[in-house]
Amino acid sequence: MSFKRKAQRERLAKDKKIENAFKKKLMMFDRLPDHCLACETDFDKKSREMVTTWNVVVREEVVRLYCPDCWQKAQDVAEQFMKKRETEVS
């Protein structure tokens, strides 16, 4: 088998793996919670605004949903933690 053909097969296999992983995560949409994990604000799956602004975190088989306010608070806390850690290391 030529090197060119082998490289093409490897590329196709990699693309297929990525596509399958994406499909698997997309199929987890039915596992999406009905409310924010932190503040329990209701989530409407039919609202375009909510679907585009809320944040979904998928780790292994667990799906977590966060409203924009809670997500921003978490980002701020993480940023403060990183700044504090940098000053302690320096």
Spatial order of strands in the largest sheet: 1-2
> Tally the helices: what do you get?
3
Share of helix, binned: 55-70%
How many separate domains?
2
The Cα radius of gyration reads 20 Å
Order of helices and strands: HHEEH
Stretches with pLDDT under 50, minimum 5 residues: none
The largest sheet is: 2 strands, antiparallel
Structural class of the secondary structure composition?
mainly alpha
Give the overall form.
flat
Average pLDDT, all residues:
89
Estimate what percentage of residues fall within beta strands. 5-15%
Query: Gap between N and C termini, in Å?
Result: 55 Å
Q: What is the strand tally?
A: 2
Q: Could you characterize what this model shows?
A:
This protein has 90 residues and is mainly alpha-helical. It has two domains: 1-30; 32-90, no CATH class. It is 59% helix and 11% strand. The chain has three helices and two strands, in the order ααββα. It has helices spanning 3-27, 48-53, 68-89, and strands spanning 55-59, 62-66. A two-stranded antiparallel sheet has the order 1-2. The termini are far apart. The model has no long low-confidence stretch (mean pLDDT 89).
